[in-house]
Amino acid sequence: MRDLFIEASYLIASVLFILGLRGLTRPDKARRGMQMAAFGMLFAIVGTLLNHTIIDYRWIAGGLILGVIIGYPMGMWVPMTAMPQRIALSLTLSALAATLVGIAEYHTEIVDGTIPSHVRMVAIGFEVMLGSITVGGTIVAAGKLQEWLTSKPVTYKGQNIVNGLIFLALLSGLVYTIVDPSKEWAFFAMIGASLVFGVLLVMPIGGADMPVVVALLNSYSGLAACAMGFAIGNVILIISGSLDGASGFILSILMSKAMNRSFTNVLFGAFGSETATASGKSAAGLTVRSIGVEDAAIQLAYAQLVIVIPGYGMAVAQAQHAVRELSELVEKRGGEVKFAVHPVAGRMPGHMNVLLAEANVPYDKLYDMDEINTEFDRADVALVIGANDVVNPAARNDKASPIYGMPILNADRAKTVIVLKRGMSAGFAGIENELFYDKRTAMLFGDAKSSLTGLIGEIKNV
Question: Do residues 252 and 215 touch, judged by C-beta distance below 8 A?
Fold first, then answer.
């Protein structure tokens, strides 16, 4: 009876995981999708706790308590601006769990004098290898996103050769361990090489590519969990790990496509290594036109179509609620407001969608790049709030630009462009934005939330 209940719990969990993942494909169903996935995890945990092979629940209870102590603050108190690095750290913890379970399984059998079979060592080996690579990579990714580490690529001569040699070393350790599982030194050397490889894999990648890297590391974490499922004979880990691995891989492909970049270019291109104009020249001699709050408010108040382009600057300033209030004011005066969301805006997939949903911006006002780009030609104002690389015309016009070919939002084709920005610093790609120097562009300098609050006050007085 207990086994039947466990299998039923795992089946329900699997169905909820799949339905939850499907719900995440639509902004208006994302919250429901997350709730279904959470209930799925609850069923998976309950089913696992009823496993008859458990002989002592004290360590499990300790793990549950520690998980709540770590997880609750990360979920409740981490601000939305820090969500990308929080996700990276979550991947670190999940990959670390898979690695530790693999080490425990291997060590227990060796101590007991039971040499694992070659098939079992394949599962354990891939589990700890992928888990260790993910731990090393996600720690560096979180450090770059939090700016504890430089967001610029850290490169040196012959770096790809060194990384390749380390990768061959860890593969050799994996093969040697599978062939002769009794060689503990090879097993732990493989783990060490995997950790080092994970760190060195992400260090040369620039901050502009971090969303793709986090998605790829999420895939590695899922595959590690899947391998763990095979190692310990747990069906739900195999299913959930496969879903996680496949979805992370697909997401990283879609994001690379959104930037017109290949995986090899992301992983080995050292993108964003210097700050310059798109063609590699300095910005000396170029001028920008600034605008005051009063003049910007008049243009917005009488605009027939305003397209808002949110970026990381909006997230930093926590300005999403002010953006919604501004859009409602424009609409009350007879104007139309649409939100243009680039696939890689912000620091993680869906970053802007989450922020705007938090501010109760209607889902039907959010448009992806392909839907909105044809609308810019008739837009009176394109309001750019902290976005940078995703509106840089160099991606379309300058073949010498490192972002040339990346699909962008056509903000430069609006009649007027108003950019809310603290200063003239470059974005995560590390290059100057040609849009800021366009004759139709006006820069409204200052904190985005303060600027939007000022615009709201002025529009009410128009």
Answer: yes
